[in-house]
Specification:
alpha+beta, seven-stranded mixed β-sheet, globular, two-stranded antiparallel ribbon, 4 helices, Aminopeptidase
């Protein structure tokens, strides 16, 4: 049975328990505000130590500055997590970013990501955000997940996030 709880900085090393690997058949590009599907056909590997270190640093940085993280556990093993950024974004200052979101390969399509996103949404609303900002990896699975959760391509791209990850699909979800 999957159990959920808020995560703290002391949980940062549990990130290595996530199997982020994935077969990527298709990716998307945002061309003139339309999603264009491109055949990819490659494997995204599990964490290497350098990338895991970068993710741990982002996770700890967001939480240290007031962000929020929520995780899913199978027994004591972390199988999914999401991080809500602390910094309000957008021209109106009414957006909080879903900074990180991962579910282990063998646990996908079981509602775990949806449950984590619902908790991030609830927390963002409590903090006064009207929108969640998502800089999604361009994979079909990630884009479909966020679109099925109500996201839309944003017409107000965050330039800082775009500069960091220009291939990402930038979306928002209205936080009702």
């Amino acid at each position: 049975m999957i159990q959920y709880r808020q995560l703290s900085v002391i949980d940062v090393d549990k990130i290595k328990e996530i199997d982020r690997s994935e077969t990527i058949d298709y990716i998307y590009r945002n061309i003139d505000d339309s999603l264009v599907e491109i055949k990819a056909g490659h494997e995204c590997p599990a964490w290497d130590e350098e990338l895991a270190g970068q993710i741990r640093q982002r996770f700890a940085g967001e939480l240290t500055n007031g962000g929020f993280a929520y995780g899913a556990f199978d027994q004591q093993i972390l199988v999914g997590f999401g991080v809500l950024g602390y910094l309000f974004r957008g021209k109106a200052g009414d957006q909080l970013q879903v900074d990180l979101m991962y579910v282990s390969r063998n646990y996908r399509r079981q509602g775990i990501g949806t449950r984590i996103l619902e908790e991030l949404t609830r927390t963002a609303k409590e903090r006064g955000a009207k929108f969640l900002y998502i800089s999604s990896t361009e994979t079909r699975s990630a884009v479909f997940f966020y679109k099925s959760s109500g996201s839309q391509i944003t017409d107000e791209v965050d330039q800082e996030l775009f500069a960091k990850e220009p291939d990402d699909i930038h979306m928002t979800i209205q936080n009702e």
